Amino acid sequence: MQKSPLTIVKERFTDKAGLITAVKALATDDLWSDRLNEAKGLDLVSNKKLLHLHDVLTAVKKEFGSRDKLIDAIVQGEDRGKDADYRKRFVEWSTPRLYDYQQNSVSA
Q1: Are the C-beta atoms of residues 20 and 50 closer than 8 Å to each other?
Q2: Burial of 25 (0-12, 13-18, 19+ CB in 10 A)
Q3: What is the residue range of 69's domain?
Q4: Average pLDDT of span 76-98
Q5: Cα 6 to Cα 16: distance, rounded to the nearest angstrom
């Protein structure tokens, strides 16, 4: 049986505040596109979504180092490295969406 998100949060971060702190530590300008609604913040986001965000940001930081390098990997993987307009399209995407797109394009 799969563990609940709350159980995973308690095992890995002791509580939700610890998870939020870990996500904020990873959410630097290198990995994060600043589209967060400051009125709501991360406190109201579900544990499952925060865990997914933490896992994605950790993987992107480990594999690529930054969001820009992830975008470069996507563009180079599709042999469109010189196409600036094509690259610009990905700049607007969120980091989890970029990572998912990159993972799916590599496996295809």
Answers
A1: yes
A2: exposed
A3: 5-107
A4: 90
A5: 8
Q: How distant, in Å, are the alpha carbons of 19, 70, 86, 98 from that of 64?
A: 22, 6, 20, 12
CB 30 within 8 A of CB 66: yes
Name the pTM for this structure: 0.87
53's tokens: 């965000």
Q: What is the pLDDT of residues 14-59, one digit of tens each?
A: 999 999 999 999 988 888 877 666 667 788 899 999 999 999 999 9
Structurally, the chain folds into a number of domains equal to 1
Task: Classify residue 80 by its DSSP letter.
Answer: -
Contact 59, 106 (CB under 8 A): no
